[in-house]
Amino acid sequence: MLAIIKREISSYFTSPLGYVFLAVFYGFSGLFLWINCLANGSADMSGVFTLMFFIMIILIPVLTMRTMADDKRQKTDQLTLTSPVSLFGLVMGKFLAAFFVFFCAVLVLLVYAVFISAAVTKGGNDFAWAAFWGNFVGMLLMGGVFISAGVFISNLTENQMIAAIGSIGTNIVLCLFDIISSYIPAEGVRNVINSLSVFYKYSEFTSGIFSLRNILFFISIIVIFNFLTMRFIERRRWS
Amino acid sequence: MIEVKNLSKSYGSKLAVDNISFTANESEILGFLGPNGAGKSTTMNMLTGYLSSSGGEALINGIDVLEDPIGAKKNIGYLPEQPPLYLDMTVNEYLNFVYDLKKCKLPRRSHLNEICSLVKITDVQKRVIRNLSKGYRQRVGVAQALVGNPSTLILDEPTVGLDPKQIIEIRTLIKKLGRNHTVILSSHILSEVQAVCDRIVVIDKGKLVANDTTENLSHNLSADHKLTVHIEGPSKEVQSLLTQIPDMVEVHVNRQVEKNVTEYELNAKEGADVRREVFKRMAARNYPILLMRSSELTLEEIFLKLTTGDFYGNVENGGAE
Q: Does the reported pTM lie above 0.80?
C-alpha cells in the first residue's frame, strides 16, 4: 500500500495535475476569504467553507479521474493486480494518495484562520476556533466522500474525461438529495431522504454543529464507496 | 514449477480457454504457442491471477492462485503482452516502485543494478519511460518481471518490437534465466520457440493441441522416416542403387539441382535408419553425397498441421500427458 501511495503522490506532482489542483483550490479559497471576511471585516469563516463545497464538487473529480482509469488504459493494472498486493491495499493506496493532496489543499484554510485569529485577538475579541475546527473536519470528510466516489467512478471506465464528468455528476446527485426531498409531500419519506443528504450533513458542520453521528455518516459513505471499488475490480476479474 | 489442471475460462457464452492441463517443471523453458486469439494471453492472465478462471486450477510452486493469490504472486514475474509501464516515471523510479510493490527483500541498489545490466538498460536508467523507444520499453518490461528474482517467469511475447540484435540478446537472456527459473514464454514466432524452449505447448481455439518436446513433436508428426539427399552421378543408376537398400520403401527423384546433381527423396521403413547404408553404397561407386538431411517437419509445418485441424485427435492422444 505504501508503495502505491508514494507512487501516486509523486505522479500528482510530476504532472501538472497536482499543482493545478492546489492552485485552483488556493485561488478560490483566497477569493472567498476576501469576499466573506476581509472585505467586510468579519471573522466568521463558515461562508468560505460553504462556498468551497461547490468548488470541490468540480475540482475533486479532476484529482481522482486518473486514479483507476489510467491504470486500465495503460494496462499498468496488470502490474498492480499481479503483484503481491491486496485489493484493499491497492484501493486504499489510491484513495489515501488523493486524500493527501486534498489535505495539502485544505491546510491553507488553517493558515487563513491563524492570520484572522491573530487579527481578532489583537482587536480584543476571541476567534471562534471551535466553529473553525468543525468546518475543517467537515470539509475533510466531505472531500473524502467525493474522493472515494471519484475513485469508484474512475474504476468504471478507461477514459479520464468520462471519469471526471461521471464523478461531477455523482457528486451533484449526492448533494441533490436535499432539493429532491423538498418536493416530496410525505414527511416520512422526506426525512429518510434528508437523512441521506450529504449537503445537509455538511451544512450542519458549517453551522457549528459537531456531532459524532455526522462524522460516522461520512466515514460510512467513504467505506462503502471504497468497498464498492474493490468489489468492482474483483467483478472484472470474474467476468 | 507451474501446474495447470483443467483450466477453463469463458467470457459469457464464449469459451476462450477450454480445459487445458500442462506442467512446467523447474529449470524448464516452456513455449506456449498458438495462433492469434487462441487463448494464450488469457491463460497467462489466469496463471498470474489477473483474471480468474471459470474452472480448474493453476498452481504456482504448489500454491493455488485463487486460494492464496498473494502467496502465489510472490513467486511470479510477469511480463504482459503490453509492458505495464508508468510512462511518467524514470526507469529508476519505476523499478524502485516495482521493488516496493513486490515487497522485495534483496539489497535494493545492487539488485536493481544487476537487473539493469542484465537486460542492458543501464544507460537509460535516468530517462523518463515516455521518451524511450519500443525496444527499450520492452526491456524495462522484462526488467520489471525480474525484480525480486521470482522463481517463475511468465513472459507474453517478450521479443515483440525488438530489432534482430536485441531479439538474440533477449533470447540468450531467457535461456540463461531458464537454468534456474521456471519460464513460460508465449509466442507466435515459431523459430523463437524452437530456439529457446525445451518443451512446447500448442493451443488452438482454447484447446490444448500438443504438449511435447520440440524434437518429439516433429518426430512424431512426420511418421514416415524420410531423407532428402543430393547425389552427384547419373540419376537412373543412383536411383536403382538406392532402391536396392534393404528397408527402403520408395526412392523418388525430385529434380536436378546442379549439373549432374540430383535431389532424391528417400522413404524408408518406419524406425529404420538407412543413412549409413546410403553412404556406403554411394562411396563404393564414388558418387559423392553433397547433402543429406532428414526431412522431418519444421516447426512451421507442425504448427500448421496442428492448427488446421486435420491432425487433431491423433496428436491430442499422443502428445498430452
A: yes
Confidence band, pLDDT 50/70/90 cuts, at residue B315 = very low
Domain limits, chain B = 2-219, 223-294
In 3D space, the residue among B295, B290, B222 whose CA is nearest the CA of residue B259 turns out to be B290
Q: What are B21-36's pLDDT values in tens digits? A: 999 988 899 998 888 7
Tens digits of residue pLDDT in B236-279? 888 888 888 888 888 888 888 888 898 888 888 877 778 888 89
Residues of chain A contacting residue B51, judged by C-beta atoms under 8 Å apart: 237
Do B101 and A80 lie within an 8 Å CB cutoff? yes
Domain housing A22? 2-238
pLDDT, position B38: 83
| Average pLDDT over every residue of A83-87 | 91
Domain count, chain A: 1
Architecture of domain B223-294: 2-Layer Sandwich (3.30)
Residues of chain B with Cβ-Cβ distance to A19 below 8 Å are none
pLDDT of residue B30: 92
Task: Determine the Cα–Cα distance for residues B2 and B31; give it in Å rounded to an integer.
Answer: 13
- Computed over every residue of chain B, the mean pLDDT equals 85
* CB < 8 Å from A in window 162-221 of B: none
Q: What is the 3-state secondary structure (H, E, C) of chain B?
A: CEEEEEEEEEECCEEEEEEEEEEECCCCEEEEECCCCCCHHHHHHHHCCCCCCCEEEEEECCEECCCCHHHHHCCEEEECCCCCCCCCCEHHHHHHHHHHHCCCCCCHHHHHHHHHHHCCCHHHCCCEHHHCCHHHHHHHHHHHHHCCCCCEEEEECCCCCCCHHHHHHHHHHHHHHCCCCEEEEEECCHHHHHHHCCEEEEEECCEEEEEEEHHHHHHHHCCCEEEEEEEECCHHHHHHHHHCCCCEEEEEEEEEEECCEEEEEEEECCCCCCHHHHHHHHHHCCCCEEEEEECCCCHHHHHHHHHCCCCHHHHHHHHCC
Disruptive mutation site among A4, A9, A19, A83 for chain B (greatest number of B CBs within 10 Å)? A83
Nearest to B88 among A6, A11, A86 (CB): A11
Shortest Cα–Cα distance, B123 to chain A (Å): 22
The CA distance from B316 to the nearest CA of chain A, in Å, is: 29
Is the pLDDT at B312 greater than 70, yes or no?
A: no
| Residue A157 confidence (pLDDT) above 70 | yes
Question: Which CATH architecture best describes the domain B2-219?
Answer: 3-Layer(aba) Sandwich (3.40)
With a threshold of 0.85, tell me whether the complex ipTM lies above it.
Answer: yes
pLDDT exceeds cutoff 80 at B221:
no
| pLDDT category of residue B72 using cuts at 50, 70 and 90 | very high
